[in-house]
Amino acid sequence: MTASPLLETFPALSAIPGLIHGFTLRSPLIDVVTDRDEALARLRPFFDEQLALAGVGREQLATGEQVHGKRVIGVDGSSPGHSHFPDTDGLITETPGQFIGVYVADCGAVLIADPVRRICAAVHSGRVGTELGIVPEAIRSLVKFYGSAPADLIVQIAPCIRPPAYEIDFAAAIVRDCEAAGVPAAQVVDCGICTSSDPSRYYSYRIEKGKTGRHFAFIGWQSI
Fold it and tell me: Per the count of CB atoms within 10 A, which of 138, 147, 162, 167 is most buried?
């Protein structure tokens, strides 16, 4: 993986052998003062560039059409090319070489890794998704369908909006939900950064009144 100043990584996940992850930062060269779909279209070459620096091709990627729900699906890598799933805010994979990701601008990107069974999840959890319990739903899916043990999981919460810029601290609720689901407190890592804190580094839907870009958080295991 090649280091990039526009791609943030997290120590708790970087310490896991064979796991690749990242969180794209703001691109200073791309005008994103537009609607969501157009912003994503303008950012796609930038995302592809950052993925390539991490050793990931777009054809290895799966994403969801995020709707602030609690649907979590498993991705097995059987469909060639970039896979995009409707009505999906959480993705899980145990397939080496398959990468999964979510788009966020103030909502929380939650990346989960099981280093024992080499499984991972990417979850989009803002205020509504947190209230619906999408992160605990992802943990339940890891346990039920993939055999994970909550005590083995590493959970990373990426930069998201927080008080006082936002009236609800949904990141703190995600931490509590993970601990209630059986993940040890020391293995639930919140970066603590508010996306409203540095407009040169982060996009913020609230601060920029909806006319802004998106971060892309991704995770997956290297091919064996």
Answer: 138
